[in-house]
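Example protein as discussed:

>
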Amino acid sequence: MTGLPTPADHVLAQFPGMGPKAGRLLRLGEQWKCWVLCDRDPVYGWTDGRVALTGDAGDFPQRLVDHNRARAPRTARAQQVARAMGREVYHPAGVAAKERNAEIGSLSEAELYGKVAWLHDGTP
């Protein structure tokens, strides 16, 4: 079954509370068609980059809770390290700056990378 040609004013009338930007976008539409949702070819792509349309995909809300629980310790650690680096690496002055310079200056490049490797490769 193919869609039936539908006037643009009929389409626009279906969205009376549409904001101005969305309304302008709808008015750009051409050759509107109307068809029943039961006559659609299967769609196999429900993701685009980091975005996924989940709809009624099983117990997805619980999966998001589980994902959050799994991510929370790592993201908390990243935030705590960023705070400490701001305090101890980027903003010290006087004696604290001299001590920072001596400590960082004593580390090899590999040791410096090793201190933040967990952030980039997922290791603890």
Strands lie at 4-5, 33-34, 47-48, 51-52. The CA atoms of residues 6 and 32 lie 5 Å apart.
